[in-house]
């Protein structure tokens, strides 16, 4: 069977790498070379033209992971070739990952698209320069979701929560403190002055999905301490911050010059997956700068401790302290197929209601013409759009095409 599949294998169009059947990735995503605007347009023109020739009965949906808030050049060009484009952010509060809701939205939409159109529809994936870490995660997530990778671990099929709901509900928690086991070396005294900031959802906003800084340590006074390896081997920092959903905890080293900060590490997590109210991570699990790993001693570990919240009702507005300043994983086997795509190419330096509504609409469509009709007839406005439409790290721009009043806007999807 393997021999027959190779014999009848159809090579993908030039400029595309095949991830799975009818799922392709643009090879420019893995190149350090930045194509000039004219050449880039020609590059996309040749690829899409060949795709239409090889798949004349197919409709195309392209996912693009972009930088910034403006509509991408990629979307502008592909819309001229009857390709539906969905723009997603390529990071969340500085971390090369997306909120859980957006990852789940991407998987559901791609699954639905591939099952429509008599199995002729095609999915394309593209990221802008520097976005390959997120793209690799998204591709691996897709392989796990579709059960396409061969090195499947039975454990990934076991849900640790007892509820039938998936993804599990994002329960509110109190982020009590951060404990560092061993002292990182970020100055000439073999120590550090850690400053903690916490970013997450603003639950008091109109849609509850916009993000903001939830907590920030003051840079002056007794809040900033200097820890040295010879004096201590444990750092405990009290935080006491209410969090829910996707959260980014950032730890920076404050230099003697209070205006100069050095990134130590970032931690991103979702409260739905916190068990026993503790999150324990070693250096390999932290998001650190590529040249900072040697600063962390062997056996370094970060522990984030949480507390239960008695009431799950939306929190009240936070009151700043008088003497402070408070402002409001996938298994590694899943990446094996992704790594095959990267061989031989240059590397780059380093509301669920809306989603369900969209899926129901997609299930009734057969081609791009139906999608165009949906755009003209629908007056639906995405509930995940923020008030000022300026929060790309929390809102899926992929639903903007459903609002006919914004069809020509910078974030619309053709």
From TrEMBL:
Which residue intervals define the domain C2 tensin-type in the entry?
Answer: 170-309
Give the GO molecular function terms.
Answer: phosphoprotein phosphatase activity
- Record has Ribosomal protein as a keyword: no
Q: Which UniProt keywords apply?
A: Hydrolase, Protein phosphatase
Coiled-coil residues are none
Entry-linked InterPro entries: C2_domain_sf, Formin_homology_domain, Prot-tyrosine_phosphatase-like, Tensin_C2-dom
Please give the name of this protein. Formin-like protein 14
Its source organism is: Sesamum radiatum
């Amino acid at each position: 069977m393997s021999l027959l599949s190779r014999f009848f294998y159809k090579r993908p169009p030039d400029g595309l790498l095949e991830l799975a059947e009818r799922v392709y990735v643009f090879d420019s995503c893995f190149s350090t070379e930045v194509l000039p605007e004219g050449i880039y347009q020609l590059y996309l023109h040749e690829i899409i033209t060949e795709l239409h020739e090889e798949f004349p009965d197919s409709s195309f949906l392209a996912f693009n992971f972009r930088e910034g808030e403006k509509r991408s050049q990629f979307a502008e060009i592909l819309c001229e070739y009857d390709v539906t484009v969905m723009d997603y952010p390529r990071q969340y509060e500085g971390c090369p990952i997306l909120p859980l809701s957006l990852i789940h939205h991407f998987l559901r939409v791609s699954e639905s698209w591939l099952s429509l159109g008599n199995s002729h529809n095609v999915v394309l994936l593209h990221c802008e320069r520097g976005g390959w870490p997120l793209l690799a995660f998204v591709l691996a997530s897709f392989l796990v979701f579709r059960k396409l990778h061969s090195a499947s671990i039975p454990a990934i099929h076991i849900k640790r929560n007892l509820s039938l709901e998936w993804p599990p509900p994002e329960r509110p928690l109190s982020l009590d403190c951060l404990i560092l086991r061993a002292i990182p070396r970020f100055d000439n005294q073999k120590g550090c002055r850690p400053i903690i900031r916490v970013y997450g959802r603003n639950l008091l906003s109109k849609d509850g999905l916009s993000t903001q800084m939830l907590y920030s340590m003051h840079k002056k006074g007794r809040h900033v301490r200097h820890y040295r390896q010879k004096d201590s081997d444990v750092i405990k920092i009290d935080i006491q911050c209410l969090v829910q959903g996707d959260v980014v905890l950032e730890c920076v080293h404050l230099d003697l010059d209070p205006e100069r900060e050095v990134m130590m590490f970032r931690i991103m997590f979702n409260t739905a997956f916190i068990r026993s109210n503790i999150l324990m991570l070693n250096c390999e699990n932290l998001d650190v700068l590529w040249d900072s790993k040697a600063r962390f001693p062997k056996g370094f570990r970060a522990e984030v401790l949480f507390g239960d919240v008695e009431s799950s009702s939306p929190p009240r507005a936070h009151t700043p302290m008088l003497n402070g300043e408070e402002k409001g994983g996938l298994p590694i086997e899943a990446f094996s197929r992704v790594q095959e795509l990267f061989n031989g190419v240059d590397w780059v330096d380093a509301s669920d209601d809306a989603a369900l509504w969209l899926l129901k609409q997609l299930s009734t469509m057969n081609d791009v013409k139906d999608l165009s009709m949906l755009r003209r007839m629908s007056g639906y406005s995405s509930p995940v759009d923020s008030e000022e439409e300026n929060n790309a790290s929390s809102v899926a721009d992929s639903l903007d095409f459903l609002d006919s009043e914004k069809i020509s806007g910078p974030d619309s999807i053709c």
